[in-house]
Structure formats: structure tokens, C-alpha cells
């Protein structure tokens, strides 16, 4: 038994000895591993200490890590000095090395990871604070324009017959998580209408609140412009993005700031090939939804919803609504005729609306003709089929004026897709092209007819009274993109480029039409070389016979113009996006030109150059400039109307006194020009001037004392000039003044003492909050032969009611305001 115990003891001793030897053999590799770990950690610890000091963060965890590293270093130094003769001590020190290394690894993997998470969260909180400061101060948020209810979406539309798709969309949008939903269907199927409507759906509004953004993308999207739109919609000053990448980075900053709450982004009218653009808006933020509307589905985004044609019941209901048919209609002899026309529309909401509008109040014969036209086209499978149906409605437009209304409709194709068309621009064009009234009354009648036929929509961005004073600066026309395409198609007709009455040209970057540079003489040379060759060997450019020339350029256009010889053009429409833009060389030879309309559709003003090329155009009557920096104006002796909207005017009136440059102006309008602090020198010497509108120019603080020189002035508008403190007494000498609008002049404290000397018919005083009393002279309005119409607030109305004027009409308007005008106002 003793031998057995002794043998076991020897066996255990042997195992211990073998274990000790193994540990001794592993000692060196363990030591080397520790040395490598410490060598890697040393510089990192030093950096961590430096950054910790810079950030002024708590140092407890860093100090603990530094202590562990220091102790490990001390043990490694001691172990490194052990010689072979101390091999029996190796296992002891190896255990210590492993213990120290284990403690270090545990601290790095657990304590430091947790601390890093805490630090990261703190950084995110601090970053959010920084972003808020940047957005409020650096980006320049405008406190007067807080988040709109639905940013960028027009007013809530009618959405008849779409209850089922609305419910399905609502279910998808109310789900949690991040997703892209594509709403697809034929053109005119109601995609945009449905997308706008869902933004107003109560449950959707409750969930997303003010984080609902609606942006129209269109056929040729520009990422920077779309991001600029989002910044503007949020009420922030729009940054100037250097690149698309810069725009995407700032977009992420913006969305993460807004991401405290669910976000709904609607990208409307996305065309094929724009998938990569949509991808750039996909940012991993909790509860962030992107709703895309497109004529095609995008399988890569997963969820897609096909918008089907309307069924017979809903189609007939929609048709009857827009045709204004009652159940007991006296001018529709049989229901079968309605049914056949509805069937011919093939369930297309756009076709139903437009054709219904064209038949409203028409005779039986017109209805029958429409039915026969529609029966010739049996299918509706493409935009071309739909365009054919829409064209039928135009064939029955009546000729109420000297020009067929179809001509007016075709003029709407001169402006870019998905952009608002200023009614004031249409009035300028139509007055000169078709001899309509200069006050715009005939033009508005045409616009009303086109609206009734559902060919266009009209929005009024600011309305405080009735339109009887013929002021339409706040009126805009919207055209569905399919109807715009129809207008362009009709303009082209069967005629060649040289024979068309309207010529519309789109120029992108260095790309030019073949006729622009002439045919390639070698026939096989590449397009880019052909362009260069054309620069040196210009062939004769085609002579353009059009009365109307519209040229649209993108932001990369380099202002290289060809000599296209548009000798017959009476209207030139320039639609631009670039930061620098030179008027075409050929404008110098456009001697029949009557109207020039220059509009920048970007967010930041474009520098307009070579304005002097207009100096030789003796027939030029009207100029409208929007969102450009105007160079010094040239002498235009015969110009009758100058309209400046959202422009930089600092240099405009430097070279000449405006009375020398434009002595025959009859109307002048300056709107939303924040740099305008005084009226142009010499303005009061333009005696033919009848209408002067200086509106929304918040820097204008005073009027010239010699205002009475404008002896023919009939209309003076100064509304929303918030810094205007008083008006000169010489106003009383404006004997022909019939309309005075000083509404929303917030700093105005009193009216001119002798205002009662005027023969006013209309006086706008709404929003003059500092105007607390009326001068005694207002009682002299009693001597007027006509009624005076005062538009004012309720408080001001009580003052007028105390006057002795019998022929007095007081109107307290209900202010109707939407903020669709916001994009670009502050750029």
C-alpha cells in the first residue's frame, strides 16, 4: 500500500515537472506576445490621452488603461532579464504575464468598449447640438418661415375614385422601418395626385408631422437642386454645393437632424435611369420612408404599387364631376352617349378630366363628334395613346378671340417641365403676339377657359382682395407634363425645324443639335470632334422663321452660341440654370424682337452678361428678368415695360440714369429684390410711367421727394415694403393716381397729410399695423364723383367708418396665403 502511495506521489510529481517544463518552454513565446501587444498599445494610449485632453473629457478610464499598460511593461522588463539559470521561475512569471495580459484584454474588450459606446453617444448628442447651431446660424435659418405643414406639396388635391389605392398607400407608409415605395402607372393615371393626397391623410400627417417633404424630380433631375429644395422647404438658407457629393453629405446632416421624428420624402415624377439618384436619398434613419412616383417600376427598390385604371363606376363619377353634369341635365339627350365617351377614356383620370372639361356646356353634336373620335383609338397602353385622346379635346376649342385658343395652349410648352409659369409672363407674350389688352384682362379670360377645360391649373400664392385691379404677379399656371408634351408635339406638327412658328431648344453642357455646328464634312468623325471642327469651320446655320424662340440650358451650359439667324422672332424665352449666362450673340440681329423673358430656375442667382446686345433692338417693348444678377442696363428708348423679380439690382442702374436709358417706360415692376434700398435715380423723370409696383422689397426705406413728377401715374404699389417708414407729401400731386397699395408696410406710421387731395378709387391698407390714425384730409374723399374702395384690417375699418365719406366701400379681406413661392426667394 505504501509503495502504491509512493508511486502515485512520484507520478504526480512527474506530471508537475512535465507541466513546469512545458510552461517554461512557452514562457518566451508568451513574453514576445506581451511585448508585441504593449508596443502596439503604447502609441494608441498616447493619442487617446492627447484627444482626451483636447476634448476635456473625464480621464478615469484612460488612467486605468495607462496603469494596466505600465504594470505590464514593468513585468515584461523584469521577465526580459531572467536568464536560463532561472528556468524554474519561468512558469511563475508566465502565469503573471498571462494574468496581466488577460486583465488588459478584458479591460479593452469590455470596459473600454462600453466607455467608447458612452463616448460615441455623447459625441452624437454634441454633434446634434452643433448641427442645430449650424443650421440655425451657419445655414441661416429664417425664423419668419417655420416648417410648413407639408413642405413643398401644393394644396390638397381632389382625389376622386382613388379610395382603395389611398388605403393601401396609407398602410405601407404607416409601417415602421426604412423603406422605398414606388407608385407606378401610365402618365395621367393619377400618381402625383395620389402622392399629394396621401401627404394630407390625417394618420400620415399625425405620424410624420412637419417632416413631410414633397419634391418634383422630372425628366432631367439635378441632385444639387433637389437638395437645395429640401433645405429651402425646411426654412434654411440654401448652401452653395460644390459637388453632388457635397450635396449628399449635407443632405445626410439635414436628415439626421430631422430624424428625431419619422420622415416622409416624396420624390415625384422620377424617370427611368434615375435609380442611382433615388439611392442617394436612402439613409439609415429610423422610420424614414421614401415614396417614389414613376411611369415605370424600379424592382431594385423592392416594394412597388401599380396604380390601375379607374373602374367604370369611378370613371363615370369623375367624368360627370368635371363635365358638371347633373342627374337631370337638359343638354345631354341620352346617358348612352356619356357612357361611350367614358369608355373611350379607358379609365385614365387625366383623359376623363380634360375631355370632360372640353365638353362642358357643349352641344349634342360636339359630344357625338368626341365619341366618334375616341372610338377610333381602341386601346390605351402608352403615353402616345393618351396623347391622342387629349388632342381630341383641343380640336373643339372655340375661337373667342382673334387667335384660336389652341395657340395659347401651345405657348405653354415654351417653359420647362414641372415649373410654374408666371401669368405676368404670359400676359407680356400674348399682349404683343396676339394684340390682347395690355392690362391682362383678355389673357386672364383665356387662362380661365383653359382652366375650365382642365388643361391647366392656376395657383395664387398670395391673395388679399379681388383681381379687379389687374395685378397678377402672384398668379402662376401649372401644366401636367403630358399636356406640356402635347403642347410641344402640336407646336412641331408636320413642319420642318425652319418652318415652325415656335422653336424650343434644349442645350445640355457641350451637347448640341447637329444643325448647331453644321454637318460633319467627313461623315465618320465622332460627335465631339465634329463639334470642335464646327468651331473652326462654321457652316451656314439654318434660318429660323419662328415667331417665338425658347431656349432651355442646364447648369453646365458654357454660353457658346451659334448664329441661328432667328430674324422673325418676336418673343425670346431663355430658361437657364447656370451660375453665369451670356445673352446669345444672335440677339443683336433680332430686330423684330418685342418680348424678352429670362428666368433662372436654379436656387442661386445667375450672373447675366452681355446685356448691351439688346441696345440695337428698337422694337423691344417688354423685358422680364427673374432670379438673375442684372448687369448695367443699356439704352432701350422704346421699352414700355420692365419687370424684375427676385433679382440683384446693385449694378443695374449704375451706367445710366433710368430716365435716360428707358425714357418711355409705361410700367415698371420690381418684386422681391432685397438689395433695393431706394428707387433708381431719374425714375421720377419718366413722365409716361402709368404703373409703378415696388413690392416685397424689404430694404426700401424711403421714396423720392419729387414723386409728383410722375404726372401720368395711375397705379402705385408699395405693398410689403416693410422698412418704408413714411411717404412724401408730394404724393398728393399725383392727380391721375387711382390705385394706391401700401398694404403690409409694417413701418409706416402715418399717411400723407393731404392724401384726401387724390382722386383714388382703391386704397389698400391691410397689415399697416403702426398706422393708428387717419389724417383729417380723408374727409375730402367725400367730394369724389366715384366710390372709393378701401381694403384694410378690422381695426383700420373702424377709423374709416367714423369718416364723413358717403361713397365709401370698406373691404376686410380674408388673407389667403400659401408658401409655394418660397424656393429661391432668399438665395
- How does the major sheet shape up? 13 strands, parallel
Mean pLDDT: 79
The geometry reads as globular
Q: Low-confidence spans: pLDDT under 50, at least 5 residues?
A: 1-11, 13-18, 133-148, 519-539, 817-827
Rounded to the nearest angstrom, the radius of gyration is 37 Å
The CATH homologous superfamily of the domain at 666-827 is named Ribonuclease Inhibitor
Number of helices: 22
Overall helicity? 25-40%
Family: Belongs to the disease resistance NB-LRR family.
Domain RPW8: 1-146
InterPro entries: Apaf_helical (IPR042197), LRR_dom_sf (IPR032675), NB-ARC (IPR002182), P-loop_NTPase (IPR027417), Powdery_mildew-R_dom (IPR008808), WH-like_DNA-bd_sf (IPR036388)
Pfam families: NB-ARC, RPW8
Task: Give a written overview of the molecule.
One of its GO terms (molecular function) is ADP binding. It comes from Vigna angularis var. angularis. Residues 1-146 form the RPW8 domain. Belongs to the disease resistance NB-LRR family. The structure is a single chain. Helix content is 37%, strand content 14%. The chain is of the alpha/beta class. Among the domains are: 2-130, no CATH class; 163-306, Rossmann fold; 309-396, Helicase, Ruva Protein, domain 3; 666-827, Ribonuclease Inhibitor (Leucine-rich repeat, LRR (right-handed beta-alpha superhelix), Alpha-Beta Horseshoe), CATH 3.80.10.10. It has a 13-stranded parallel beta sheet, sandwiched between helices. A 5-stranded parallel beta sheet has the order 2-3-4-1-5, with helices on both faces. Strands 6-9-7 form a 3-stranded antiparallel beta sheet. Helix 21 links the parallel strand 18 (641-645) and strand 19. The longest helix has 54 residues, at 2-55. Mean pLDDT is 79; it is low at 1-11, 13-18, 133-148, 519-539 and 817-827.
Amino acid at each position: 500500500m505504501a509503495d502504491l502511495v509512493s508511486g502515485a506521489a512520484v507520478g504526480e510529481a512527474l506530471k508537475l515537472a512535465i507541466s513546469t517544463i512545458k510552461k517554461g518552454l512557452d514562457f518566451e513565446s508568451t513574453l514576445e506576445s506581451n511585448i508585441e501587444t504593449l508596443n502596439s498599445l503604447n502609441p494608441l494610449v498616447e493619442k487617446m490621452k492627447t484627444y482626451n485632453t483636447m476634448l476635456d473629457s473625464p480621464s478615469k478610464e484612460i488612467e486605468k488603461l495607462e496603469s494596466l499598460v505600465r504594470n505590464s511593461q514593468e513585468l515584461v522588463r523584469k521577465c526580459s532579464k531572467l536568464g536560463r539559470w532561472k528556468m524554474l521561475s519561468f512558469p511563475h512569471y508566465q502565469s503573471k504575464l498571462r494574468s496581466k495580459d488577460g486583465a488588459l484584454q478584458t479591460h479593452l474588450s469590455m470596459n473600454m468598449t462600453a466607455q467608447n459606446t458612452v463616448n460615441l453617444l455623447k459625441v452624437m448628442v454634441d454633434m446634434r447640438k452643433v448641427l442645430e447651431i449650424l443650421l440655425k446660424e451657419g445655414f441661416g435659418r429664417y425664423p419668419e418661415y417655420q416648417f410648413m405643414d407639408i413642405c413643398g406639396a401644393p394644396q390638397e388635391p381632389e382625389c376622386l375614385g382613388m379610395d382603395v389605392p389611398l388605403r393601401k398607400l396609407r398602410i405601407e407608409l404607416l409601417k415602421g422601418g426604412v423603406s422605398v415605395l414606388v407608385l407606378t402607372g401610365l402618365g395621367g393615371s393619377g400618381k402625383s395626385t395620389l402622392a399629394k393626397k396621401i401627404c394630407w391623410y390625417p394618420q400620415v400627417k399625425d405620424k410624420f408631422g412637419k417632416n413631410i417633404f414633397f419634391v418634383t424630380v422630372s425628366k432631367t433631375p439635378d441632385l444639387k437642386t433637389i437638395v437645395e429644395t429640401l433645405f429651402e422647404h425646411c426654412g434654411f438658407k440654401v448652401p452653395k454645393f460644390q459637388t453632388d457629393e457635397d450635396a449628399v453629405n449635407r443632405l445626410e446632416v439635414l436628415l439626421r437632424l430631422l430624424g428625431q421624428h419619422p420622415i416622409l420624402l416624396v420624390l415625384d415624377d422620377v424617370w427611368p435611369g434615375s435609380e442611382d439618384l433615388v439611392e442617394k436619398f436612402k439613409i439609415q434613419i429610423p422610420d424614414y420612408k421614401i415614396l417614389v412616383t414613376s411611369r415605370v417600376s424600379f424592382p431594385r427598390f423592392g416594394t412597388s404599387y401599380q396604380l390601375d385604371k379607374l373602374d367604370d363606376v369611378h370613371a363615370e363619377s369623375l367624368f360627370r364631376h368635371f363635365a358638371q353634369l347633373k342627374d337631370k341635365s337638359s343638354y345631354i339627350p341620352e346617358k348612352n352617349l356619356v357612357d361611350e365617351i367614358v369608355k373611350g377614356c379607358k379609365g385614365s383620370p387625366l383623359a376623363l378630366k380634360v375631355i370632360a372639361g372640353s365638353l362642358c356646356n357643349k352641344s349634342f353634336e360636339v359630344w357625338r363628334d368626341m365619341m366618334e373620335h375616341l372610338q377610333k383609338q381602341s386601346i390605351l397602353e402608352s403615353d402616345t395613346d393618351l396623347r391622342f385622346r387629349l388632342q381630341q379635346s383641343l380640336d373643339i376649342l372655340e375661337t373667342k378671340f382673334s387667335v384660336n385658343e389652341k395657340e395659347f395652349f401651345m405657348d405653354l410648352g415654351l417653359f420647362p417641365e414641372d415649373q410654374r409659369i408666371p401669368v405676368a409672363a404670359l400676359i407680356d407674350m400674348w399682349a404683343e403676339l396676339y394684340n390682347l389688352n395690355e392690362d391682362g384682362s383678355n389673357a386672364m379670360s383665356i387662362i380661365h377657359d383653359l382652366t375650365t377645360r382642365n388643361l391647366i391649373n392656376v395657383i395664387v400664392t398670395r391673395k388679399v382682395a379681388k383681381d379687379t385691379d389687374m395685378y397678377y404677379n402672384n398668379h402662376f399656371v401649372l401644366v401636367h407634363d403630358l399636356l406640356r408634351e402635347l403642347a410641344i408635339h402640336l407646336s412641331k406638327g408636320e413642319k420642318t425645324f425652319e418652318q415652325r412658328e415656335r422653336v424650343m431648344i434644349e442645350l445640355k453642357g457641350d451637347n448640341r443639335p447637329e444643325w448647331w455646328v453644321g454637318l460633319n464634312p467627313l461623315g465618320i468623325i465622332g460627335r465631339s470632334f465634329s463639334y470642335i471642327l464646327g468651331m473652326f469651320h462654321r457652316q451656314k446655320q439654318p434660318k429660323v422663321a419662328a415667331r417665338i424662340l425658347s431656349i432651355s440650358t442646364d447648369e453646365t451650359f458654357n454660353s457658346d452660341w451659334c448664329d441661328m439667324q432667328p430674324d422673325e422672332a418676336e418673343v425670346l424665352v431663355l430658361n437657364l440654370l447656370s451660375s453665369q449666362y451670356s445673352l446669345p450673340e444672335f440677339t443683336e440681329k433680332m430686330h423684330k424682337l418685342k418680348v424678352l423673358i429670362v428666368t433662372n430656375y436654379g436656387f442661386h442667382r445667375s450672373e447675366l452678361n452681355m446685356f448691351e446686345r439688346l441696345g440695337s433692338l428698337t422694337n423691344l417693348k417688354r423685358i422680364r428678368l427673374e432670379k438673375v444678377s442684372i448687369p448695367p442696363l443699356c439704352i432701350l428708348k422704346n421699352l414700355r415695360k420692365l419687370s424684375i423679380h427676385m433679382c440683384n439690382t446693385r449694378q443695374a442702374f449704375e451706367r445710366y440714369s433710368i430716365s435716360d436709358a428707358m425714357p418711355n417706360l409705361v410700367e415698371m415692376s420690381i418684386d422681391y429684390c432685397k438689395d433695393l434700398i431706394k428707387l433708381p435715380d431719374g425714375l421720377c423723370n419718366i413722365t409716361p410711367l402709368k404703373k409703378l409696383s415696388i413690392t416685397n422689397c424689404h430694404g426700401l426705406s424711403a421714396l423720392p421727394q419729387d414723386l409728383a413728377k410722375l404726372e401720368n401715374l395711375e397705379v402705385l404699389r408699395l405693398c410689403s415694403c416693410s422698412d418704408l417708414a413714411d411717404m412724401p407729401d408730394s404724393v398728393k400731386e399725383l392727380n391721375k393716381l387711382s390705385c394706391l397699395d401700401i398694404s403690409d408696410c409694417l413701418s409706416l406710421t402715418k399717411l400723407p397729410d393731404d392724401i384726401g387731395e387724390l382722386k383714388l378709387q382703391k386704397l389698400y391698407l391691410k397689415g399697416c399695423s403702426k398706422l393708428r390714425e387717419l389724417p383729417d384730409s380723408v374727409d375730402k374723399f367725400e367730394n369724389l364723383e366715384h366710390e372709393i374702395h378701401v381694403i384694410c384690417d378690422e381695426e383700420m375699418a373702424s377709423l374709416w367708418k367714423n369718416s364723413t365719406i358717403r361713397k365709401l366701400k370698406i373691404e376686410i379681406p380674408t388673407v389667403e396665403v400659401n408658401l409655394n413661392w418660397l424656393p429661391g426667394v432668399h438665395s
